[in-house]
Specification:
Rossmann fold; globular; alpha/beta; single chain; about 40% helix; about 15% strand
């Protein structure tokens, strides 16, 4: 795989979890990774709680928008090396056929946008989702990708999604 590696984070609405993951990988992936996000049924807007949290932590928000995964399945789309689902709904959906057959994995994270409560409870849910994603992304970034074959990378990505508590 050539560098930088392209990573697409998928969720259903592309308004919270996948957006948080895109920002985190953009911030921590340096020149080694390019992060993208999309949804199977995008909401069309990014949750304001997600943007507030990212800005409060000085994480990148430039260019973040809710978009369909169709943008990444066409011939003009960037080639994806990795496609990671971050919500249970998107993991069970039939995905487009990705050019180049990227390595895929599921990293289910509870949906902070589904929390119904006080402003403080909702903010806590967004903080928890960000914390879980950051932990998984940091483990992903520590993988010796250049030294592993595709099967070993897939096994490691599945382990990150399954063994790190959500």
């Amino acid at each position: 795989m050539p560098q930088p590696y392209n990573v697409l984070f998928l969720c259903t609405g592309n308004s919270a979890r996948s957006i948080l993951a895109e920002s985190l990988l953009t911030a921590h992936g340096e020149d080694q990774f390019r992060a993208y996000s999309a949804g199977s049924y995008p909401k069309g807007t990014v949750r304001p709680e997600a943007l507030r949290l990212l800005r409060a932590l000085d994480l990148p928000t430039k260019g973040l928008r809710s978009k369909s995964w169709v943008e990444f399945a066409g011939p003009d789309a960037p080639y994806m090396d990795f496609v990671l689902t971050v919500c249970d709904d998107a993991a069970g959906e039939v995905c487009p056929v990705w050019p180049g057959k990227p390595i895929t994995a599921h990293w289910g994270i509870p949906d902070p946008a589904a929390v119904d409560g006080t402003e403080s409870q909702i903010a806590h849910a967004f903080n928890e989702a960000l914390r879980m994603l950051e932990r998984r992304i940091k483990v992903f970034l520590a993988l010796p990708i250049k030294q592993l074959d595709a099967i070993a990378i897939k096994r490691e990505l599945d382990a990150i999604g399954g063994s790190l508590p959500a």
